[in-house]
# Entry
Amino acid sequence: MQDGLLVVPRDRVLGFLHPLPVAALWGVGARTGEVLARLGLRTVGDIAHAPLATLQQALGPAAGSHLAALAWGRDGRPVTPHAPDKSIGAEETFSADVSDPDVIRRELLRLSERTARSLRESGWVARTVTVKLRLANFTTITRSRTLAEPTDLARKIYATACALHEGSGLDPHARLRLVGVRATGLGPASSAATQLAFGDRPSGWREAERAMDRITQRFGTGAVRPAALVTKDDAEL
# Structure
């Protein structure tokens, strides 16, 4: 232990690192992976024991040197132990392709609820809402909208997600395989200014959703949810 940091012996670091696939290293994407595969380098250990000149010739001097250093567990970048999330969201792949707009809207509501709850639990508000729509043929489109004020409210995220879905340009009955809702442009909830829409009670919706959070934490997901998400089977219980 040094200055509050746990120091792991180098041989243990390399013993863990070297058997990993090359994609485990930061900066190794699909294209770099293909280059390394052509060189017969498939694990981090392969990179570590490859001639530096070979890596530099294949990847460029800077990238080759950087990858060689990472393969030996050397990285000069500072560690940020509590880096803020860049985005928070949720998505769902349907068991069968869905074309019913009502079913899609219900799923957008459920995902908006999950996203908003995660924002509140993390202490963030979001400036931008994005929806992800994957068609039955695996074509994927995304649509985003930046809000006038950052939010952690499901009702605002859901309204924006529905508007993005409706304005996506897709046929209203397009068959979807996956939908997703994501919040980006995150900032601390404590610093967010709140502007009330006409007719809103101060903190009314936020307090209602936080009350739902408390019930969920105590009784589990699904213990309380919007009426639109209550199924016929639930109603008969």
In short: The longest strand covers residues 176-188.
